[in-house]
Amino acid sequence: MKLRSAPLEDWLRDYYFTAEIDISSSGVQSYSMAELRTFTGIEYSDLDALVFDDGYSLGTPKVREAIARRWGDGDPGKVMTTVGSGEAIWLVLTALLRPGDEVVVVQPGYHSLVELAVGLECTTRIWRLDFDRDWRPRLDELAELVTDRTRAIIVNFPQNPTGASVTEAELREIVAHAERVGAYLLWDGAFADLVHDSPALPDVSTLYDRGIGFNTFSKAFGLPGLRFGWCLGPADVLADCVRIRDYTTLHTAPLVELLALGVLEHAEAFLEPRLKQARANREIARDWAAAHPDLVAMTLPAGGVAAFPRLLGLADTYEFCENLFQQRGVLVIPGSCFGAAQHIRLGFGGSSEALVDGLDRMTDALRDERR
Prior knowledge:
GO terms for molecular function: pyridoxal phosphate binding; transaminase activity. The chain is an alpha/beta fold. It is built from 13 helices and 14 strands. The chain has helices at about 5-15, 35-40, 45-50, 60-70, 85-95, 110-120, 140-145, 170-180, 235-245, 255-265, 265-290, 320-330, 350-370; strands spanning about 20, 80-85, 100-105, 125-130, 150-155, 185-190, 210-215, 230, 295, 305, 310, 330, 335, 345. Helix 5 packs parallel to helix 6 (about 110-120), helix 5 packs across helix 9 and helix 11 runs parallel beside helix 13 (about 350-370).
């Protein structure tokens, strides 16, 4: 497999750790170990009792059971824990796809959900989201893209970077398009628990025998540094993933799974405060965009904690984003990292104070750009 560079990671690698104000992230504000231990009741004695043996190839049984109860159909045999959802996505795509396979992908989109298929020498067909249609996915366009040659459809709704989503009825229609040709439907549900105006969508693995759902602690749970993720899917696909994993990570670390089990057993303690914060911050972002229609045009995201506004008058936001960081200490993501150069990814999952300050500084920078 030969992979192209990931512009998003190249950008963050340079700026993430030194930003004064980060309003770029697609995840909620991160929790500390002290907060994790408070919410879960994990004691130092629990950590001291851990023996650093090797782990289970598919994950510790209790952890898989907890995931199956919350997101799956209750069957832990359909669950695999991984080093973030990125490993799960890589394992599944490597197990399922071969050179020449036809794969439907969404653009603009997160690089792992597009570039891995390209690196595996698949033929990608683009399901494009359009800013002029408020990023709403057109299911009639998907129907035209899916053919008898389609091996997989790869999506994530709520979507990164646009925040667009679908209704449950539309989810079931997407399932029907996959089912009519026997394609796998791979659904990145990283933002499944970060929805604002509608109920969370069911995991695709509960709706279709070739549906595979991915999820992570990195977005809604505020634990990106824990590097814990999972997938839900057919047992035979997970078995193929294990055979690939035997050459790489082997298993998820026992310490990570100990902490993850505590989080899963107290999930609402992590999710509810950050969702409340995200919804308040979404209103701040909405009001900011509404107050500056000469500078920015933004569709309010239905899910997640990132919007993908267009900065008016800029054909490419890359240089503006560089200057915003260098001169004003504010980190956002240029839209070219997602193939949409007129846009930026604006994150609103952090503190309200940082969001207001960052938006004020960006407004000043945009005004200066006009002078």
